[in-house]
Amino acid sequence: MATTFNSTNTGAANAVPGIGDGHGIKAVCGVFSLAAALVINDVIQSPVIPKGATILDVIVNVTDLDTGGSPAITLDVGYGVDPDYFVQASTIGQTGGVVRSSAATAAPLTLTDNDTVDVLVKAAPATGATTGTVAVTVIFLPPNA
After folding, report:
1. Which residues pair with 110 in a beta bridge?
2. What is the pTM of this model?
3. Tell me: the pLDDT tens digits for 2-16?
């Protein structure tokens, strides 16, 4: 059964999450540590990004999430209404590494509501790793920047 997981916020704990002076570009990172293998349609959410913020880039760093001899896992990265807005069907979970916003739709995005950036397990792993991490870094301009 698919589950939604929340990552742990590693950014500053203030009214507008992230690191920065409040007037320029900010970044917030959420890290999720696996306790079991991921399954199809699992979602890992970043910390909440505030309404009115403009997302400029998303960086996802993962460990090897599929330890099978013929890995099959793919990941989409998006937000509430568009689950593959930033990244579509990335194979990065098959070996581990980093993927950035790369989808054709991945233009700067101004949020109309508070939202999260989500990593969706689009295709299940052949043999899911039971330990590892998924880190989601969101680079954005805060509202009224």
Report:
1. 54
2. 0.87
3. 676 666 655 543 444
